[in-house]
């Protein structure tokens, strides 16, 4: 199965700063259609899990433009520019290229 | 508005079974896959399997074959997951999540159902 590694268990950030969360896959997530099957999710206590990015870089409906997905092949990044207090959450990457679909272990964004 | 409503928390004894539900509204249930996911406290999220709302076709993570059985009731737009022979390792929060096509990501999630296995 494909392993996704999110190196940082936690990242500390101040409001207004930029932060980057990385996700490395054990094999390329590029399919023959030219798309990467990598998505990002936000989990906040008491709220339903929210999809932020799919195909590595496409924001889902209603996601603020400060959330930016990038990367290709096996290396992917979720960047949050101008972090807001409501961005404090757990962030997961997910691959749906091959079954079993697998998630990264998650990165917790915390306030300095 | 798409909504996924999951059944309430369960406290079950070791060796027992439990059936979780995920009632949907706001989209055409039979046109999409529903996935079930497991999240143990403070741990990673695992994909259990998919079921197609149209014909009930399933795909499972090998790890959960024999443990989880996915079904649907098209008439009520509800997905179900049976968990059998429960042990403490099955204590977790279980989510249902709809699989977006063609984006192939989980676009809507339920709030989760906590299952606690304890005697």
Textual characterization of the structure:
The complex is a heterodimer of chains A (112) and B (119). The mean pLDDT of chain A is 97. Chain A has strands at 4-5, 10-13, 19-25, 38-43, 50-54, 58-59, 67-72, 75-80, 90-95, 102-103, 107-111. In chain A, the strands form two sheets. In chain A, strands 2, 4, 5, 6, 9, 10 and 11 form a seven-stranded mixed sheet that branches. With 112 residues, chain A is mostly beta strands. In chain A, a hairpin with a 2-residue loop joins strand 7 and strand 8. Chain B is mainly β. Chain B has no helices and eleven strands. Chain B has strands spanning 3-6, 10-12, 18-25, 33-39, 45-52, 58-60, 68-73, 78-83, 92-99, 106-109, 113-117. Chain B is globular, with a radius of gyration of 14 Å. The mean pLDDT of chain B is 96.
Terminal residue distance of chain B: 40 Å
Structural class by SSE content of chain B: mainly beta
Radius of gyration of chain A: 13 Å
- Major protein interface: A-B, 22 and 22 residues
Approximate helicity band of chain B: under 10%
Largest sheet of chain B: 7 strands, mixed
Class derived from helix and strand content of chain A: mainly beta
Order of helices and strands of chain B: EEEEEEEEEEE
Number of strands of chain A: 11
Number of DSSP helical runs of chain B:
0
Residues in helices of chain A, as a percent range: under 10%
Residue fraction in strands of chain A: over 45%
Q: How far do the termini of chain A sit from each other?
A: 36 Å
What is the quaternary state of this protein? Answer: heterodimer
Characteristics:
A: 112 residues, mainly beta, B: 119 residues, four-stranded antiparallel beta sheet, globular
Task: Give a brief description.
The complex is a heterodimer of chains A (112) and B (119). In chain A, 0% of the residues lie in helices and 46% in strands.
Helices and strands in order, then pairings?
The complex is a heterodimer of chains A (112) and B (119).
Chain A (H helix, E strand, L loop, with lengths): L3 E2 L4 E4 L5 E7 L12 E6 L6 E5 L3 E2 L7 E6 L2 E6 L9 E6 L6 E2 L3 E5 L1
Parallel strand pairs in A: 2-11
Antiparallel strand pairs in A: 1-3, 3-8, 4-5, 4-9, 5-6, 7-8, 9-10, 9-11
Chain B lengths: L2 E4 L3 E3 L5 E8 L7 E7 L5 E8 L5 E3 L7 E6 L4 E6 L8 E8 L6 E4 L3 E5 L2
Parallel strand pairs in B: 2-11
Antiparallel strand pairs in B: 1-3, 3-8, 4-5, 4-9, 5-6, 7-8, 9-10, 9-11
